[in-house]
């Protein structure tokens, strides 16, 4: 591959060679001299006071080196885990942020809360010792649902958080929305639950830490999507380790889906313990342990209304959401159901008035934070369910009602009533493409064919928009968040013209080693094979905010494009010197610096060599070397959008859903690598199908036990649950990113839950059914059918 492979090409992924040949290097693969193993003892209770912990027997067991509890961490002044990005309530006051000790002190607040950490020579010895620790718990009443947690008299998780209310938050114009509803000809209403999900990346979380006493240097290898932020939060807030003495490395990471974008207690405890024990410590999460200690996603209870005039034009939307935060605030937790949710309630529609209230609530469950899509699938689900209900109730065709209210292509940039301004988009174009590709015209015949087999067939539409590329500091500030999220890139050109990129994003499945190399190959005109991408190591990469919120291309890629431009600018200076010309006369294209209108030129490689072997440089204007760095703080989010159409067939005898067809047309701006974008969409849609039809995190109301804590009870979508999909793009160019790209990493999870649920409801609509909560399991569907047709 000694050629330029630039933007728009689909080379095979560079990183796959090491993965398919078994040479990926994950945290669990790390071996350090003298390494020990750590195991956490976790609470079996959802809510309990810790009266005493007796670890005498455990400490005396074979191979055991230490047993640590919350009291030890407290005595050592270890701090609590910070919630990295806070929110501000209606009253202008900051949210309640109660302490979150890495090992529980005094109380446990969810099943799985870590109580003690055992370090031993082997994991088996540590596990046996953990079982020998005697914890005297005084079990307290627990509460797992948001409605119950807000009721007067509900068990209180924190003494200084009355009513378990972390924050009462709002966005939009309450008065204008009330007025809009007052003049409505029709109001559509939905009560819905956005089901709690567990991320379940293929590689469970893990951490290895070591400490070098002679230099005071700590190293933590962790399964993280943002190693620099872990260094910042853990080093400054939890363990008080100076940043230059803490190296955080996130090597190959086997999927994250949001779950690995938080600073977790285990990272801090393992790092602290390594110094205490004086030997490296490794902890690898078990799958069942992950179910009760990885942050969960979603979990909203929502009442929503859409006001329409007599022609079906939208006048206003009003939403009340209760968002479950679990037992503590995770790093981004309260931001997800607020700042990432409410600003998307305009969808792709012109809705003059919007008002959203969110109560952010503590319960005795695992902390909730971002999971692929994070707030945006929840918003899309609310809007797209409301639109379908309104269409059904008003007798308007579901496509027609969408078309009537869509923001026209010419109306961009479009300012919504909820802060965000969409820069570009063509929702009607995406919908038209999807209708064509899904053969909507042939649906009636397919429905008849299904009926002839005794099956019910339904088709569901979802048109969506996403705000991604987190996060412009200007907008984050207006939303009351603590800060925005820029990104950085260094382009290091070696004397031979080979290029190493150091970037602050983290590749854990998204193909950055390929797509970022394509960007450099295109910009600098260097062979694709000559570009390597380095990430995930705080000692190598300057700084970075990591990967989540589909930000890597829109923010990291923009920093990379800018750093590449700086390299070209410097290269022109060098070429001008070498060619004895004026810098302004030097053009750069496809790897060649040339003087316009002449045959005088220098290749990129010649300029790179000259940068490091300078000859007679005018040093006052030209430093040797060819390495440039750029930081990029986006001016706006990017707004991918699209239209998804799902077609289901339901067996009324059993309630089993078969997803027959899935069509997606998405607008992700300039596409760097079509194959990777398709793969991202594929994976995202599969996860959305999982939420819509299969996955559900169920807690026992009384005991707060997680009832779906293993793959026996938590139903993941499998290959045979997902049809062959028709995926294509219909791009409008982002007006503010240097490459014109928008994110694509989450769009699949955003469009699909509503499309699939709307299809299920469509199949059941003749029975008077207007809504079903996710997951639309056979049991739920069967019950709805039975209730609609008693005795059948
Ligand atoms: N891309 C492109 N053209 C575009 C947009 C993106 O070629 N117009 C490419 C990018 O260059 C990158 C990939 O598509 O290689 C995804 O880019 P982007 O949308 O910037 O998303 P991120 O790289 O920031 O990835 C984050 C996103 C999120 S938030 C979750 S969650 C998620 C996801 O990506 N988790 C994943 N995709 C995942 N894929 C895998 N395999 N594993 C995960 O854990």
From TrEMBL:
Transmembrane segments: none annotated. InterPro entries: Ald_Oxase/Xan_DH_a/b, Ald_Oxase/Xan_DH_a/b_sf, Ald_Oxase/xanthine_DH-like, AldOxase/xan_DH_MoCoBD1, AldOxase/xan_DH_MoCoBD2, AldOxase/xan_DH_Mopterin-bd_sf. Gene3D superfamilies: Aldehyde oxidase/xanthine dehydrogenase, a/b hammerhead (3.90.1170.50), Aldehyde oxidase/xanthine dehydrogenase, molybdopterin binding domain (3.30.365.10). GO terms for molecular function: iron ion binding; oxidoreductase activity. Keywords: Molybdenum, Oxidoreductase. Residues 21-141 form the Aldehyde oxidase/xanthine dehydrogenase a/b hammerhead domain. PANTHER family: ALDEHYDE OXIDASE 1-RELATED (PTHR11908:SF132), XANTHINE DEHYDROGENASE (PTHR11908). This is Carbon-monoxide dehydrogenase large subunit. It comes from Enhydrobacter aerosaccus. The lineage of its organism: Bacteria, Pseudomonadati, Pseudomonadota, Alphaproteobacteria, Hyphomicrobiales.
């Amino acid at each position: 591959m000694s050629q330029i492979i630039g933007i728009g090409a689909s080379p095979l992924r560079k990183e796959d060679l090491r993965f398919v040949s078994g040479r990926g290097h994950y945290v669990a693969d790390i071996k350090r001299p003298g390494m020990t193993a750590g195991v956490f003892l976790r609470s079996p209770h959802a809510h309990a006071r810790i009266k005493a912990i007796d670890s005498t027997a455990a400490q005396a067991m074979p191979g055991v080196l230490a047993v640590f509890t919350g009291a030890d961490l407290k005595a050592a002044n270890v701090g609590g885990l910070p919630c990295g990005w806070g929110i501000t309530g209606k009253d202008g006051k900051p949210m309640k942020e109660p302490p979150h000790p890495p090992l529980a002190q005094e109380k446990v607040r969810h099943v799985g809360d870590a109580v003690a950490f055992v370090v031993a020579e082997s994991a088996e010895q540590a596990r046996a010792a953990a079982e020998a620790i005697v914890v005297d718990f005084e079990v307290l009443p627990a509460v797992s649902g948001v409605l119950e947690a807000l009721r007067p008299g509900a068990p209180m998780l924190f003494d200084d958080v009355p009513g378990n209310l972390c924050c009462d938050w709002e966005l939009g114009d309450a008065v204008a929305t009330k007025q809009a509803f007052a003049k409505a000809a029709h109001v559509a209403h939905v009560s819905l639950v956005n089901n709690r999900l567990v991320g379940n990346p293929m590689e469970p979380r893990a951490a290895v830490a070591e400490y070098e006493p002679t230099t005071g240097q700590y190293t933590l290898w962790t399964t993280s999507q943002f190693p620099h932020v872990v260094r910042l939060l853990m080093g400054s807030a939890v363990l008080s380790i100076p940043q230059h003495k803490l190296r955080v490395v996130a090597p190959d990471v086997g999927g994250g889906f949001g779950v690995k974008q938080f600073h977790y207690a285990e990272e801090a405890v393992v790092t602290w313990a390594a110094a205490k024990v004086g030997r490296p410590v490794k902890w690898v999460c078990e799958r069942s342990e992950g179910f009760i200690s990885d942050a969960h996603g979603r979990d909203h209870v929502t009442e929503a209304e859409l006001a329409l005039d007599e022609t079906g034009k939208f006048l206003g939307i009003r939403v009340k959401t209760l968002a479950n935060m679990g037992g503590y605030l995770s790093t981004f937790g309260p931001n997800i159901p607020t700042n990432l949710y409410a600003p998307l309630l305009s969808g792709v529609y012109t809705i003059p008035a919007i008002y959203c209230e969110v109560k952010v609530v503590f319960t005795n469950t695992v902390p909730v934070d971002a999971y692929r899509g994070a707030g945006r699938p929840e918003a899309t689900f609310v809007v797209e369910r409301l639109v379908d209900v309104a269409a059904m109730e008003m007798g308007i065709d579901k496509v027609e009602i969408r078309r009537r209210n869509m923001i026209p292509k010419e109306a961009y940039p479009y300012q919504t009533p909820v802060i965000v301004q969409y820069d570009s988009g063509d929702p009607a174009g995406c919908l038209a493409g999807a209708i064509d590709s899904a053969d909507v015209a042939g649906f009636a015949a397919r429905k008849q064919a299904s009926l002839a087999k005794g099956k019910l067939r339904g088709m569901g539409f979802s048109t969506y928009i996403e705000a991604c590329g987190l996060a412009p500091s200007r907008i984050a500030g207006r939303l009351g968040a603590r800060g925005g999220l820029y990104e950085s890139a260094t382009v290091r050109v070696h004397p031979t013209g080979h290029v190493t990129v150091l970037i602050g994003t983290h590749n854990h499945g998204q193909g950055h080693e390929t797509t970022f190399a394509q960007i450099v190959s295109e910009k600098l005109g260097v062979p694709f094979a000559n570009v390597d991408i380095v990430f995930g190591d705080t000692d190598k990469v300057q700084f970075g905010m990591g990967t989540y919120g589909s930000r890597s291309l829109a923010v990291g890629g923009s920093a990379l494009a800018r750093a590449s431009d700086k390299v070209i600018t410097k290269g022109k200076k060098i070429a001008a010197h070498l060619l004895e010309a004026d810098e302004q006369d030097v053009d750069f294209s496809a790897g060649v610096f040339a003087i316009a209108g002449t045959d005088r030129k220098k290749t990129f490689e010649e300029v790179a060599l000259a940068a490091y072997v300078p000859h007679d440089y005018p040093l006052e204007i030209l430093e040797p070397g060819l390495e440039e760095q750029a930081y990029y703080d986006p001016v706006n989010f990017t707004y991918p959008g699209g239209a998804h159409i799902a077609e289901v067939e339901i067996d009324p005898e059993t309630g089993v859903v078969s997803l027959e067809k899935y069509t997606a047309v998405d607008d992700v701006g300039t596409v760097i690598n079509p194959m990777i974008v398709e793969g991202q969409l594929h994976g995202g849609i599969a996860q959305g199908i999982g939420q819509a039809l299969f996955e559900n995190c169920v807690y026992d109301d009384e005991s707060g036990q997680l009832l779906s804590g293993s793959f026996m009870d938590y139903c993941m979508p499998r290959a045979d649950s997902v049809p062959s999909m028709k995926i294509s793009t219909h791009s409008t160019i982002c007006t503010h990113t240097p490459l014109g790209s928008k994110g694509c990493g989450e769009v699949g999870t955003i469009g699909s839950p509503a499309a699939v649920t709307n299809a299920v409801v469509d199949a059941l609509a003749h029975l008077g059914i207007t809504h079903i909560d996710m997951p639309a399991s056979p049991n739920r569907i069967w019950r709805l059918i039975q209730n609609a047709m008693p005795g059948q």
